Amino acid sequence: MLEIIASPISFFILLSLFFVGAIGSLFFYKNNNQANAWSSFFVISGSLVGLVFSIVNILTKNSLLFGLKTSFFSFFTISFHIDLLSSFFVFVISLLALFCSIYGIGYVRHYYKKYNIGVLGFFYNLFIGSLILVVTSSNGILFLIFWEIMSISSYFLVVYDNHDDDNVKAGLLYLVMTYIGTSFIILAFLLLYKYIGSFDFLVIKDNIALIPASIKNIVFVSAFIGFGLKAGIIPLHIWLPVAHPAAPSHVSALMSGIMIKSGIYMMIRLFLDILQPVPFWWGLMVLVVGSISALLGVLYALTEHDIKRLLAYHSIENIGIILLGLGSALTFYSLNLPALALLGLIAALFHTLNHAIFKALLFLSAGSVINEVHTRNMEEYGGLIKYMPQTALFFLIGSVAISALPPFNGFFSEWLTYQALFQGIAQMSFVTQWIFILATGSLVFTGGLALACFVKAFGVTFLARPRSKKVTCAKESALSMRLGMGGLALLTLLFGVFSGYIISIINTVSQSLGIFKNSSSAINISSSQSMSVSNGFSSISGPLIFVLFVVTIFLVVFIFKKIINRKQKECTTNTWDCGTNFTPRAEITATGFSRSIILIFKGLLKPTIQHNIEYYDDQNRYLPKSRTVTLNIGNVYHTYLYQPLHIVINKLSVKAKTIQNGNIDLYISYILVALMLALLVIL
Amino acid sequence: MSIFILVIQLIFIPAFSPLCVGIIRKIKAKLQNRQGANIFQPYRDIWKLLHKDEVLSRDASWIFRFTPYIVFAVTLVVGMSIPLFVPHVFGFMTSDILFIVYTLAIGTFFMALAGMDTGSAFGGFGSSREMTISALAEGGFIFSLLTMALIVGSSNLFDITSFTRSINSQYFLPMILAFCGFFIVLLAETTRFPFDNPATHLELTMIHEAMILEYSGKRLALMEWAASNKLLIFIALGANLSFPFGFPMNVGFVAIALGIFYFLMKMFLFCVIIAVLESSIAKFRFFRLPDLLLISFIFNVVAIGLIYSIK
């Protein structure tokens, strides 16, 4: 039985489910309900198959290599290689797709009669199918085809809500940035092809010694830019906070939860598997980029009051944290410390999994709120905990997990990342050590600021009194949406409490990589689920923490409520209003909450403030009619990076115009000259 | 025996923390030429509040109602996980520095949410200020504990304490720097001067008091008690990690009794320092506080650099 599940057959069943789901929902484009049912059924069953397939593969340590032998071109073969790393990513994709699709059943109902559900189902199925193909294909060209399908299907999902012009604009920016990234990836693959003569990942890996060091560095830089752009590292992130919020919420959850991780997957695949051995500075570069992305990501998140953009910026932050783990793994491995390198890689993979879960949870619960209140602006929320109590609880669990508070899963993966960085400080020599110290500093402040940001996000959205009329009409979301969120919320807790078990599985996944074949990791997991790192430098136990919390809270509630304070009454009145007429305008706003942090970091964030006063009489300005204050954050990347680039490209195009004068005869002579030159070069 | 020690660890912090506040208040009163209340007054206050009826805001949700229990429980969990006067006798898996820091952050997180929950302007601004300060204080907090952990080679607080007892003097300078950094964080996290004034309810400046403004009765008692627990936790960390004189090396009634005696002496000393500090300096302007917290962070970064230049 297990052999059948872990065979290529079930992989093709899995793909065909998504394929049938995609094509079938197009047939039902006229009937919303049927299209929804059809696409959801196939996505959910496909994800279930994917879950079983990947879990069996990981637990039996099974690695699959298969493909079509017939090929028309020598460089293009349809071949798949599903090792444990791929299986791990298939697992994460299927897990998220499962819960997001359950959520989607109820969520897409509000698109009925406005948009075509069949088209949504088509691209949704295609998107998830291509995600799975991206992490399993083993040929550069094949990979690029799936990568493009993934990008294009997600583009169509981003612009799905096309009545809003902003979404269409967001889609365009996303498309342009994606192609810039893809061109860098193509460059990297072509360079590898030039020296090795194959696009097949396994062939490249076996012949990697043929590549000169300088070319390898160029491959690294272009792959890091290409995949980093998809992952959303700063300063290549500008598409992410625009595109993710535009998509339907369950798609945003998938994009933030897993699509950006496909960049991380390829970085691990290339840097830790294919391009070995790597030079020392690669790891340091990844570390530096990771620190910058983490810290700036959370700072930009603090400035946001659009709830989905806020979450999108947190994705950038968490990609930074994952890169800190990956960067330390690279550094340690190039210095021949495989045990610590494994620690870093496990931290990165565990955080990838955890971030996927809690970020999806947050996006889904934000989606439920938007669905009810019909705006993404947090300043118009408030008091939703009374109208949507369960959604509020799910968002709270997500916030606690992403702020790395124990005993939820975020704490344990950040803990591992910290341990990798601590070991870097303890064992590296001078310059490297300081990079590790700064990376730790960035992670520390990131943690603190993320906590502040989620107090703001949860408090402004769900607590106090409603700030707009729309909130008072909000109702708890549909059952399927609550099921999707509830499942993820439960997972954040379970993956925290049983983190020891999860980490031991991720340990086997990481050890299956060629370079770690004969090394054991610096993590020890005892039978009671507690882990200790680097010969007892640090140790922690998930179940013990959980039990300790539950028992203590129970004890405190019991003693104070039932023993000491039994007879006393609780009466309910208004909040103290200082004798004024109390309105929701007295409450703190999202902008006000983070204003002090923004002012403290004004060197980085460049906040701007603009006063506009309109007077009754412009000549003698005594009576102001209205005053407006506009607060903004300077767009540094636009002004200092993209704007100058744009100007340079424009100038070059104008220069190119002088030889492009529209005269056909001239063009033919260009062709002739080019042909002669090409002939000369070849001969 | 280990059950006995566990129970003492659990009870010790809440049992002595009001005394700590009482002592500080008494010394401050004396320095201001006042008689001051008895040092046991905080116990009476808590007892009185526990037996009063409660007024709850109409706008408050379960977050507001449940927060005092979480905040208090968090201080208990941390209190029993840190070295007080018992050496490392059983494998505490919860004495990791990061666990302590992030568990205390749970309390801050929920307290800030409770501040926003009633919809009062005071609560909201209190939360905003508190989160600003605690976000920036986290750098100094983790790094000061990390400095000690790197000197010792273990991030377990009990290991750090028993190691620093027998430390040789070469690490004196980084230890002192780490302690200075830690002390700044202590003042910030326990809402003391120059960060916050625990004795005032002035709208423009209050931070911690603003968040708990809407509480009354038993929930107020729990919040106040948890705040004093947190003070004693920080004092215990500062005292035992940096100055582990008299910290017992073995388990026995005499050793533990002696340990308790030394600990209370150190606690008294810290209270005196805090009280004198509060009587002699003024509160800082809010936007000068980040400078102070950054100094704490830099102290520790320098300390870590020093450790490796010594090695």
UniProtKB/TrEMBL annotation, chain A:
How does this protein sit in the membrane? Multi-pass membrane protein
Keyword vocabulary terms for this entry = Cell membrane, Membrane, Oxidoreductase, Transmembrane, Transmembrane helix
Q: Which residues form the NADH:quinone oxidoreductase/Mrp antiporter transmembrane domain?
A: 138-425
Where does the protein end up? Cell membrane; Membrane
Q: Which PANTHER family is this protein grouped with? A: FORMATE HYDROGENLYASE SUBUNIT 3-RELATED (PTHR42682:SF3), HYDROGENASE-4 COMPONENT F (PTHR42682)
* Cellular component annotations (GO), alphabetically ordered: plasma membrane
> What sections of the protein cross the membrane?
9-29, 35-56, 88-108, 115-135, 141-160, 172-196, 208-229, 250-268, 280-303, 315-335, 341-370, 391-411, 431-464, 485-506, 540-560, 664-682
GO biological process entries: ATP synthesis coupled electron transport
Which molecular-function annotations from GO does this UniProt entry contain? NADH dehydrogenase (ubiquinone) activity; oxidoreductase activity
Q: Which InterPro entries match?
A: ComplexI-like_HydComp, NADH_UbQ_OxRdtase, ND/Mrp_TM
Source organism, top-level taxon: Bacteria
- Quote the protein name from its UniProt record: Hydrogenase 4 subunit B
